[in-house]
């Protein structure tokens, strides 16, 4: 009997000891990806003493996680009479901000846009002509702006913000700027209009932690009135035909000018050759004349040489007259 009582008491003691042991606290490990920024927010403790700055931008910045892996602190929450009746719960919340770039194309056609819905931007000109344009945009959250984004948007998905708030502001700015211009001015100044939209939209969201890297028009202007679109298409075709004819005419003019230049150049070459031939002929005649004069002088020198060689030393007898001079005539012959 006593042995049986001892066994019962021992069993009861074992049950009490086992029942007092809490379950093992399994570490809660989280990995932070390269495109993420993490914030570890305490769920208990200091938050009550810091209600004024709770979840402010500076508060979040101080709780940014600098590592790429972190163990979430845990606390034991007892839910029953015995010490082992309860569970381990996280003492802090890990918030991950996804900084991946997001691109959106808001167009009319499902083949070109991000969504299958018609998301083109509709606007009106100064003379109330309705039209639609496509817009493409890309945005991201930079590392240094993660706390600002988390505070402003409570970690909403960036794609959702682009399709709602950013698109709405782009549409508002585009409509406002287009309504001040005529349709002709809108077509001419599309680049200026989208630049004004960028100047209004990009700084606004930059202050809220979103960096817009791309914001521009996509595709052509599409008119909501089919008759206007048909008239524009007709005018476009006529302008294209006129441009094609202008190009063809310009090509003919250029070919004619090229032919005329070639003919002129050929004639200039012929004229130059004739001039050169005439100059060569004149030069040859001059050389021939100079050569003849040279030969005459050479012959005179030759005659003087022969005379000198045959001279006997006597001076020539000269007699003047109306008909010139007579050389080497004997005096007795002159007297006859």
Provide a descriptive summary of the structure in words.
The chain is of the alpha+beta class. The strands form five sheets. Strands 7, 8, 9 and 10 form a four-stranded antiparallel beta sheet that branches. It has a two-stranded antiparallel sheet with strand order 1-3. Strands 2-6 form a two-stranded antiparallel ribbon. The model has no long low-confidence stretch (mean pLDDT 84). Among the domains are: 28-98, no CATH class; 102-224, Band 7 domain (Tetrahydropterin Synthase, Chain A, 2-Layer Sandwich). A hairpin with a 5-residue loop joins strand 8 (121-124) and strand 9. The protein has helices at residues 2-19, 57-62, 146-153, 158-178, 183-188, 190-206, 226-310, 331-335; strands at 28-31, 36-42, 69-72, 74-78, 86-90, 92-98, 102-106, 121-124, 130-140, 211-223, 319-321, 324-326. It contains eight helices and twelve strands. Helix 4 (158-178) crosses helix 6.
List the helices and strands and how they pair.
Blueprint: H1 2-19, E1 28-31, E2 36-42, H2 57-62, E3 69-72, E4 74-78, E5 86-90, E6 92-98, E7 102-106, E8 121-124, E9 130-140, H3 146-153, H4 158-178, H5 183-188, H6 190-206, E10 211-223, H7 226-310, E11 319-321, E12 324-326, H8 331-335
Antiparallel strand pairs: 1-3, 2-6, 4-5, 7-9, 8-9, 9-10, 11-12
């Amino acid at each position: 009997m006593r042995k049986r009582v001892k066994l019962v008491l021992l069993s009861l003691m074992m049950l009490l000891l086992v029942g007092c042991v809490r379950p093992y606290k399994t570490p809660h490990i989280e990995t932070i990806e390269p495109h993420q920024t993490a914030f570890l927010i305490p769920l208990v403790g200091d938050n009550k003493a810091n209600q004024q700055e709770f979840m402010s931008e500076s508060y979040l910045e101080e709780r940014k996680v600098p590592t790429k892996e972190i163990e979430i602190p845990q606390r034991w929450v007892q839910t029953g009479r015995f010490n082992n009746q309860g569970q381990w719960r996280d003492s802090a919340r890990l918030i991950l901000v996804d900084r991946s770039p997001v691109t959106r194309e808001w167009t009319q056609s499902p083949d070109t846009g991000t969504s299958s819905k018609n998301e083109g931007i509709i606007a009106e000109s100064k003379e109330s002509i309705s039209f639609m344009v496509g817009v493409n945009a890309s945005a991201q959250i930079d590392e240094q702006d993660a706390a600002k984004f988390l505070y402003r948007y409570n970690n909403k998905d960036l794609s959702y913000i682009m399709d709602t708030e950013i698109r709405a502001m782009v549409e508002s700015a585009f409509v406002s700027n287009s309504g001040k211009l005529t349709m002709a001015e809108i077509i001419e100044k599309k680049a200026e209009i989208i630049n004004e939209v960028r100047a209004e939209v990009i700084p606004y969201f930059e202050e809220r932690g979103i960096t817009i890297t791309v914001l521009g028009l996509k595709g052509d202007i599409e008119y909501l009135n089919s008759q206007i679109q048909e008239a524009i298409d007709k005018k476009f075709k006529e302008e294209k035909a006129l441009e094609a004819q202008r190009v063809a005419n310009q090509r003919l003019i250029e070919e004619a000018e090229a032919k005329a230049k070639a003919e002129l150049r050929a004639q200039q070459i012929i004229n130059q050759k004739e001039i050169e031939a005439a100059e060569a002929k004149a030069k040859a005649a001059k050389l021939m004349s100079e050569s003849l004069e040279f030969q005459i002088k050479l012959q005179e020198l030759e005659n003087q040489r022969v005379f000198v060689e045959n001279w006997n030393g006597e001076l020539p007898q000269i007699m003047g007259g109306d008909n010139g001079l007579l050389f080497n005539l004997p005096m007795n012959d002159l007297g006859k």
